[in-house]
Amino acid sequence: MSNKIEQFTKSKKSAETARSEPKSTPEAILLKDHPHVILGPHHPMTQLQQPDESLEAPAPIAQQKRLPAEHLRAVGLFKSYHKGSVEVPVLTGLDIDIRQGEFIAVVGQSGSGKSTLLHLLGTLDAPDQGEIHFDGRRIDNLPAPQRDALRNKRFGMIFQFYHLLPELSTLENVLSPLMIADGAWKYFVNRKKHRATAMGLLETVGLAHRLKHKPRELSGGEMQRAAIARALIAQPELLLADEPTGNLDQVTGQEILKILRTLNQRHRLTIVMVTHDQTLAGQADRIVRLARGRIERKDEEGRMKDEG
Question: Measuring CA to CA, how many Å separate 205 from each of 78, 103, 201?
Fold first, then answer.
């Protein structure tokens, strides 16, 4: 009799435990496997991820006692281009350190080397001299396949002219980096998971109603939003943005910047943004000003001068 009572007690506890445990949903499984997935504000799972408002928010980067380690570093960068027999120097010994979670705006006059610097940091081009390090590893001299993998999986890139594929829908454009990274079979196996991630990103940037639209059916602001979602689909650690608001009106440009700023603050995404708009630049954590191929800094009297 005692054995039967003991067995009944164990089975009752097991049943109570089963009832108390939440059921596994596709969203819950997705978040468990991919904790950094960004869901839209109206997604039901978003409510489960909201932080306790009673907890004190973390201090901004500048107020933290211990700054994060260097995330991206360039030392002694030189880069020149040739127009026929004429050599045009663009970068002349530039040094820059970027810490994890920073939002940096790079400004300067046309021809100062802003886009060149971004292309070098993103390994789209190689410096004539100097080194670039990411998470302590030199990356400017990596073989082409490794540089391609770096941009596909760890870097996100946004361009002024969007570069969306015209034959693909908005959703398909966002998914394209995963199609390339996975290959046909692996992508087929993971297609439902990838699609859920892409749809969550598109909801976040306000394009949940434009999933099937081709780029020609989108406005400039919508195309840039799609480009942002595409840049984030692989959950990058670094986002490089080259004049992301250059082709947009002021209102739309502010909306795009708000999206970038939210991503930076909520997910500690490191962002390096090239812009000619001083108002937008002023909303970054730090402004880096280029002149004559180097970074300017202020002297003791507040005047701008070249570093080095």
Answer: 37, 19, 6
211 in Cβ contact with 247 (< 8 Å) = no
Is 77 in contact with 98 (CB distance < 8 Å)? no
Which one, of 115, 72, 97, 111, lies nearest residue 241 by Cα?
A: 115
Phi, psi of 144 (to 5 degrees): -55, -45
Instruction: Report yes or no: 226 and 174 within 8 Å, Cβ to Cβ.
Output: yes
Count of structural domains, the chain: 1
CATH number at residue 216: 3.40.50.300
Question: pLDDT of 171-214, one tens digit each?
Answer: 999 999 999 989 889 999 999 999 999 999 999 899 999 999 99
Domain that holds residue 76: 69-306
Nearest to 290 by CA among 110, 103, 88: 110
pTM: 0.73
CA distance 141 to 118: 16
Amino acid occupying residue 62: A
Residue indicated by tokens 């996975």: 182
Helical H segments across 21-85, by residue range: 26-33, 46-49
**Which of the four pLDDT bands, split at 50, 70 and 90, describes residue 281?**
very high
The values of phi and psi at residue 283, to 5°, are: -95, 0
Whether residue 35 lies inside any domain: the answer is: no
- The answer to whether the CB of 186 falls within 8 A of the CB of 143 is no
Determine which helix (DSSP H) or strand (DSSP E) holds 64, and give its type and residue range.
none
The Cα–Cα gap between 289 and 159 comes to 20
Q: Is the residue at 52 inside a domain? A: no
